[in-house]
């Protein structure tokens, strides 16, 4: 069968917007067949990053593929410690179902990597689900990406019941400058910590940063002393820019959901939280920059999570709270989440230039650090 020719070019907002949105709606991603509604702005997932691009593939005036990329500086764990690297993140690769296995996806990835290289990017990385075989084969076999980190995505449904926060705990919102100073001081050497953290904290999608500590513990002196035990979190409102819809929940999840609502109906006195309907578009909050320090900080993390939940339950659109942490991070024990809804993410990486290649061996062969900074702009 002779394949038709296609061209790769930059996205043009006025003529491509509706076509890209239509393509996004037609492309179900991964085994959960999730679909993204970008609410009129297909670039919404990249435009908050320092440098970004969107490329499209066009075949006989039809838009058959799209890819997005962004560039940023982050902390990586090579020697000397706290080294920085220029990273390119690949996201939003979609090829129209009837144009697949025709090299469109590969050409889009190749052109994006060329753009990264022309911008002196040292590494390209991407995130996918392990079960997305098409994406895994494309990146790992064809483009030689290697498995790098396996963070855990934790999901907790939002319900109308408010959680009580222990009266011995103080939760305070901190100003952007204070949050930046705390993050640079305590998370600056965390893997993938973005050098432009201030841009994230100042973004309109950022709802704020909160610290928790025990009343009566030593005071918070932002440039100096911190309490013996304390914790911090920031919240990003993803629902403001896109909505998510799940096409197919795993069988175990569906059975659980059905039994859960049955029990809820039979025993209303139990006040079971209602499960959101994942099959119609919903928004979510993303908790990021979670940090804990001190012997009693686990309790403080739980209090912060309750606080964020209560904030989300007052919002009409927010149906779940999502967070992503390093695969071996102890935080998992303190962040409320539903195991059936939570999953493992897979990050794959590739060196793009000599400098990157030299550091690459070290980077990809070191034991994954327990903590990881997941940039809310890349959700
Ligand atoms: C993943 C996707 C972009 C691939 O696009 P594509 O244009 O079909 O890719 P290509 O034709 O360039 O294929 C390149 C290689 O990827 C692999 N591949 C592509 N589709 C595959 C599939 N269904 N099963 C297994 N491997 C597949 C193969 O190794 C293929 O090389 P080959 O054709 O020489 O065997 C496309 O299937 C898609 O849009 N899927 C839905 C969205 C998605 O999952 N995006 C990735 C998010 S990370």
TrEMBL record:
GO terms for molecular function: acyltransferase activity, transferring groups other than amino-acyl groups. Residues 6-208 form the N-acetyltransferase domain. PROSITE patterns: GNAT. InterPro entries: Acyl_CoA_acyltransferase (IPR016181), GNAT_dom (IPR000182), Plant_NAT (IPR052810). This is N-acetyltransferase domain-containing protein. It comes from Vigna angularis var. angularis. The gene is Vigan.03G124000.
């Amino acid at each position: 069968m002779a394949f038709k020719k296609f061209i790769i070019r930059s996205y043009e907002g006025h003529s491509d917007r509706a076509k890209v949105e239509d393509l996004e709606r037609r492309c179900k991603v991964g085994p959960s067949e999730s679909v993204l509604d970008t609410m009129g702005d297909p670039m919404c997932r990249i435009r908050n990053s320092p440098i970004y691009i969107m490329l499209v593939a066009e075949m006989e005036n039809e838009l058959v593929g799209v890819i997005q990329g962004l560039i940023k500086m982050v902390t990586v764990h090579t020697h000397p410690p706290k080294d920085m690297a220029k990273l390119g993140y690949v996201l939003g690769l979609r090829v129209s179902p009837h144009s697949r296995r025709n090299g469109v996806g590969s050409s889009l990835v190749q052109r994006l990597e060329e753009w990264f290289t022309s911008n002196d990017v040292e590494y390209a990385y991407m995130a996918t689900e392990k079960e997305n075989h098409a994406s895994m084969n494309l990146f790992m076999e064809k483009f030689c990406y290697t498995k790098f980190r396996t963070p855990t995505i934790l999901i907790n449904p939002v319900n109308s019941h408010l959680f009580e926060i222990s009266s011995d705990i103080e939760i305070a919102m901190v100003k952007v400058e204070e949050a930046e100073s705390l993050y640079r001081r305590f998370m600056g050497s965390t893997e993938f910590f973005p050098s432009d953290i201030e841009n994230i904290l100042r973004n309109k999608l950022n709802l704020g940063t909160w610290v928790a500590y025990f009343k009566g513990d030593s005071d918070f002196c932002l440039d100096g002393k911190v309490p013996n035990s304390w914790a911090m979190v920031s919240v990003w409102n993803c629902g403001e820019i896109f909505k998510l819809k799940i096409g197919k929940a795993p069988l175990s999840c569906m059975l659980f959901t059905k039994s859960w609502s049955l029990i809820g109906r039979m025993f209303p006195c139990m006040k079971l939280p209602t499960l959101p309907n994942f099959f119609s578009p919903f928004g979510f909050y993303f908790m990021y920059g979670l940090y804990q320090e001190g012997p009693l900080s686990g309790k403080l993390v739980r209090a912060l999570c309750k606080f964020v939940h209560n904030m989300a339950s007052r919002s009409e659109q927010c149906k779940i709270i999502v967070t992503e942490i390093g695969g071996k991070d102890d935080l998992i024990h303190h962040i409320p989440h539903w195991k059936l809804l939570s999953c493992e993410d897979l990050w794959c990486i590739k060196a793009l230039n000599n400098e990157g290649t030299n550091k690459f061996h070290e980077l990809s062969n070191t034991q994954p650090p327990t903590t990881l900074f997941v940039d809310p702009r890349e959700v």
